[in-house]
């Protein structure tokens, strides 16, 4: 991709499946990459697998003070920030009536408030420099309804509207888009779905396979590159055709 070599990239939730795949992709493109995550052990494992990474930064994205301190550490590593992959997120599978106030608050705090805290810190640095790109992690769950994920769905719908608002206010120096994956086979998905549930879902998809973290990483790389220089304020779905005719085309 054009324009990614030597770029300074921050990936939140970088120790997870999509985050680590995205780190690998940007390193392949010649970028300098820092992971931000709260899981120190997982960060260490990714650093061992990808020795070209810069030292990881530990932070809880749902805590504004933790995020602010993390960016001070980032300032010591990088002279400015070019690309933010705002990827950190969680989901908990529960019927609507069983969602507790504590669960609701936790999901919203990480997926929406955390997205805001990190993006705001990143945008301030990009505006003080030469601009940049912010890519927020959305989901097809933010575009249409799904059973058992009311809190997650609400958070991802909020991410899409946050993305649009940011694009309006931060242009022309900063481009802002949301990436909205469908069913991507990550450790988080493996924990929530049985093999039989995954097989049934896979058979409904027009492409007849679940997504891979590398698929999402490739989209992040394109949207961050100069080749996507006229794309901002959008949410881009990557779902194997899942919502082309409704939920997995309702087959």
Short overview:
With 251 residues, this protein is of the alpha/beta class.
Distance between the termini: 37 Å
By DSSP, the count of extended strands is 7
Helix content: 40-55%
- Looking at the structure, the CATH topology is Rossmann fold
CATH structural class: Alpha Beta
Average pLDDT level: 95
Strand % is 5-15%
Structural class: alpha/beta
Which regions have little confidence, pLDDT < 50, spanning 5+ residues? none
- The Rg value, from CA coordinates, equals 17 Å
Report the total helices: 8
User: What characteristic shape results from the CA principal axes?
Assistant: globular
Number of domains: 1
Description:
The chain is of the alpha/beta class and 251 residues long. The protein has one domain: Rossmann fold (3-Layer(aba) Sandwich). The chain contains eight helices and seven strands; from the N terminus they run E-H-E-H-E-H-E-H-E-H-E-H-H-H-E. It has helices spanning 17-28, 40-49, 64-77, 101-128, 150-170, 187-192, 195-204, 213-224, and strands at residues 8-12, 32-37, 57-58, 83-86, 132-137, 174-181, 235-238. It has a seven-stranded parallel beta sheet with strand order 3-2-1-4-5-6-7, sandwiched between helices.
């Amino acid at each position: 991709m054009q324009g990614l070599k030597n770029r300074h990239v921050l990936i939140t939730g970088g120790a997870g499946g999509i985050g680590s795949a995205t780190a690998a992709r940007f390193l392949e493109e010649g970028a300098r990459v820092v992971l931000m995550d709260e899981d120190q052990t997982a960060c260490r494992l990714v650093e061992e697998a990808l020795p070209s990474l810069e030292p990881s930064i530990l932070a809880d994205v749902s805590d504004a003070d933790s995020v602010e301190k993390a960016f001070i550490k980032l300032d010591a590593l990088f002279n400015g920030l070019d690309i933010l992959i705002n990827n950190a997120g969680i989901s908990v599978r529960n019927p609507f009536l069983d969602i507790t106030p504590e669960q609701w608050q936790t999901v919203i705090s990480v997926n929406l408030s955390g997205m805001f805290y990190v993006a705001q810190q990143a945008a301030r640095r990009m505006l003080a420099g030469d601009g940049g790109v912010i890519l927020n992690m959305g989901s097809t769950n933010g575009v249409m309804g799904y059973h058992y994920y009311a809190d997650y769905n609400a958070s991802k719908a909020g991410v899409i509207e946050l993305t649009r608002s940011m694009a309006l206010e931060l242009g022309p120096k900063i481009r802002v888009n949301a990436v909205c994956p469908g069913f991507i086979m990550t450790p988080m998905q493996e924990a929530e779905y049985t093999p039989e549930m995954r097989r049934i879902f896979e058979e409904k998809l027009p492409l007849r396979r679940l997504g891979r973290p590398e698929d999402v990483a490739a989209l992040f790389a394109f949207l961050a590159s100069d080749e996507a220089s006229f794309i901002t304020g959008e949410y881009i779905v990557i779902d194997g055709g899942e919502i082309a005719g409704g939920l997995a085309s309702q087959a």
